[in-house]
Write a structure and sequence with these properties.
Elements (H helix, E strand, L loop, with lengths): L1 H47 L35 E2 L64 E5 L11 H15 L3 E7 L8 E11 L2 E15 L2 E9 L10 E2 L2 E3 L2 H18 L12 E5 L5 H10 L9 E6 L7 E3 L22 H4 E3 L13 E4 H8 L2 E4 L2 H6 L10 H5 L5 E3 L30 H14 L9 E5 L8 H12 L13 E6 L3 H13 L4 E5 L3 H10 L2 E4 L9 H7 L3 E5 L2 H6 L17 E3 L4 H17 L1 H12 L5 H17 L12
Parallel strand pairs: 2-3, 2-9, 3-6, 9-10, 10-14, 14-15, 16-17, 16-19, 17-18, 19-20, 20-21
Antiparallel strand pairs: 1-8, 4-5, 5-6, 7-8, 11-13, 12-13
């Protein structure tokens, strides 16, 4: 009878636990309801007040870079608008390493709704390019079945459907390159609006977050990349994504971003199991490529849920860091007076691995003296939970392990150094092709590395178009980028008198130079561009704004590109420039360091070696070093300059080259045991 007594006692304890669990759930629901009412009241009060202070007593107390609304999908405030919160700190909200201002990479051009009210319209589907690459691509042999991988790229944006920066291009172009290699590829992204060519799969899944079921629908679009190969684009449809912006509006974050991207992570992990692509789901034997903080919950849910239920036993997750400056921090509790959330609120069975995401704000970023500053960081969790980690350039991999480059997370990254790789991004060789550029119409002239005479015609056409003196002999220097301190615009302003003034050495290296600058951003730098042009008519053009057509024409017509960025995870303009024979002068950081070979006039040949100039210190003297040497070579060593231009144009920055390296990382991950491999649930 002893075992019967123990059994009865056990049943009694379980009953007590169930009663207590029910009580806690009710208390939590009541507190959440009160917190939501307080948040709604605060939002209404802030909307009615011009000042709208968030820090006054009795109102919503925001902390850190953003605060979240616990229950997603619904709206609050006037007119059903979503709750917006103000980001705090020096880093803006979106994850873009583009050289351009984020506000310029929206709307029809990017295929996403801009941060203003615009009529909804269909985004045209991607038409696969029919023309071969200018580098003369050769047909690769078919992969053996054993070598083919099933790859799922998880990204909050994918070009051209949704885009705020370079992340969207990676999700799009890398997927196409992997498919061309013969792998089966799926991309998963939120559906921010209706895209032309998408069709509902009829597959729906409901996920329980915050004690509420949230149903998502999967839509599908197939992109043909040629040779009976393609990419399955899967879009996750839910009301919380159907808004005016992707992450926020008017410089404000959406208050429920944590919920939105937790739901997205669940839907993305479920997609290869339930969505029939070509009639057959991808299945469990896949490699997930999770991109940036928006996908930070993917490795958590994979390990804490699916692996513990013995699902995805062969699957691996690779986490891709595009910019360490964007870390996805969310305070916990999200606002004063609310209950802290746990991972159970996001649909997980327990709060396991919360420590991998846990973060404490420095005292300077806290709301008040009693604020503990506790938060979760999605980028931190993604790094610590994934099977392998990748960055967008080999040198950037080293930089994010330093105090200067890790934005406070150097210890987190260093512990993963054995599983850390760096792969330089590629560019679209069909879009950026000087022989077949849609924007280089007459009087611009196509050219290639074998015959660069067309570059002189492009230079003359650009000078005429921008009102510069039409001179073949004068070096034309250009800068294209966001007008911000990170891009080193202040360094250009500092050396501007030296560059445009009389050469004190008497060699005539500086002074007789033309300069074209295009970008948008801070007003003080915009004024510098306007003033520089006004005071140097015929020699300087300062274009405040951005035009895609003009970007191509400047790259084609210029002789030298300046990129004095203080930090640059990858960078794209220096890749475009070399493709068009425009010699880069860059600060040796991140992808700039990896993609430019230092010119040495005495190495290997009588015309030198290298593709540009790099300087180690992001200061005026460093920039002068790079510029002086490039101008001196242009003016006094014509044959060496010609060979330098041709070497730049022969560099291979194709996505296929990058995709092959990603495949190596995927195979490493597949051959290793999971980095986080928990004991499975008993039941």
């Amino acid at each position: 009878g002893d075992w019967r007594e123990r059994g009865a006692e056990s049943r009694f304890l379980w009953q007590e636990l169930d009663i207590e669990r029910t009580r806690r759930t009710r208390r939590k629901a009541e507190m959440l309801s009160r917190a939501l009412l307080a948040a709604i009241a605060c939002h209404l009060a802030c909307s009615a007040s011009a000042a709208g202070s968030l820090g006054t007593p009795g109102r919503l107390q925001m902390r850190g870079r953003s605060a979240m609304r616990l229950r997603g999908g619904s709206t609050s405030g006037m007119g059903g608008a979503p709750l917006l919160v103000k980001p705090v700190g020096g880093i803006q909200r979106t994850n873009s390493y583009s050289s351009l201002d984020e506000s310029l990479l929206t709307g029809e051009k990017a295929g996403k709704i801009a941060d203003v009210a615009v009529p909804e319209e269909l985004v045209p589907p991607v038409e696969p390019p029919a023309k071969p690459s200018a580098l003369g691509e050769t047909k690769r042999p078919e992969l053996a079945e054993a070598d083919k991988l099933s790859i799922v790229i998880i990204s909050s944006e994918v070009s051209p459907y949704s885009k705020s920066g370079g992340l969207a291009d990676v999700a799009d172009k890398l997927g196409s390159a992997l498919a061309k290699l013969g792998h089966r590829v799926m991309s998963v992204a939120p559906m921010y609006k209706t895209y032309a060519g998408t069709e509902s799969t009829g597959v729906k899944r409901t996920f329980g977050l915050f004690d509420t079921g949230h149903t998502v629908e999967y839509c599908h679009l197939y992109e043909d990349v040629g040779e009976n190969k393609g990419v399955d684009h899967i879009f996750v449809k839910h009301p919380c994504y159907d808004r005016a912006g992707m992450y926020g509006e008017g410089g404000m974050d959406y208050g429920d971003n944590l919920f939105r991207f937790a739901l997205f992570a669940w839907a993305a992990l479920e997609a290869p199991l339930v969505v029939p692509c070509g009639g057959v789901p991808f299945g469990e034997d896949v490699v997930f490529l999770a991109n940036d903080w928006q996908s930070g919950f993917v490795p958590l849910i994979l390990s804490s849920h699916y692996r513990r239920y013995k699902v995805f036993p062969k699957a691996r997750c690779v986490f891709d860091i595009h910019n360490m400056g964007y870390q996805g921090p969310f305070p916990n509790p999200p606002f004063s007076g609310s209950e802290p959330f746990s991972f159970c609120d996001f649909g997980l069975r327990d709060n396991a691995y919360y420590d991998r995401f846990f973060w404490v704000y420095p005292e300077s970023d806290r709301a008040h003296a009693l604020d503990k500053g506790e938060a979760v960081k999605l980028l931190k969790g993604g790094i610590e939970m994934s099977d392998r980690v990748v960055t967008v350039a080999p040198s950037y991999k080293d930089e994010i392990m330093t105090v200067e480059g890790a934005w406070g997370m150097e210890d987190c990254v260093r512990q993963r150094f054995a599983h850390l790789d760096g792969i330089l991004n590629g560019i679209d060789l069909d879009e950026w092709n000087p022989m077949d550029d849609e924007f280089l119409k007459a009087p611009y002239k196509p050219y290639n590395a074998q015959d660069i005479s067309g570059k002189d015609e492009c230079k003359r056409a650009l000078q005429k178009q921008l009102g510069l003196q039409e001179r073949k002999d004068v070096p034309l220097v250009c800068f294209i980028g966001r007008l911000a301190p990170q891009k080193g615009v202040d360094l250009i302003e500092e050396i501007f008198p030296w560059l445009m003034g009389h050469d004190p050495t008497g060699k005539g290296i500086t002074g007789d130079v033309q300069l074209v600058m295009m970008g948008s951003g801070e007003e003080r730098y915009s004024n510098f561009l306007r003033r520089a042009e006004l005071e140097n008519k015929g020699k300087v053009c300062g274009y405040v704004g951005f035009k895609r057509e003009l970007e191509h024409q400047i790259i084609a017509g210029a002789d030298i590109l300046l990129m004095p960025s203080r930090y640059e995870p990858c960078g794209l303009p220096q890749l475009y420039a070399q493709r068009y024979g425009t010699v880069p002068v860059v600060h040796a950081t991140g992808g700039l360091k990896d993609s430019v070979v230092q010119y040495n006039p005495f190495q290997d040949t009588d015309t030198g070696y290298g593709t540009g100039w790099k300087f180690d210190c992001a200061d005026a003297e460093g920039l002068k070093f790079g510029l002086w040497n490039s101008l001196n070579t242009y003016k006094n060593y014509k044959e060496s300059w010609k060979k330098l231009v041709q070497r730049c144009m022969l560099q291979d920055f194709s996505w296929e080259k990058s995709a092959l390296k990603y495949v190596e990382v995927f195979k490493k991950a597949k051959t290793e045991p999971p980095y986080v491999n928990p004991w499975p649930f008993e039941t």
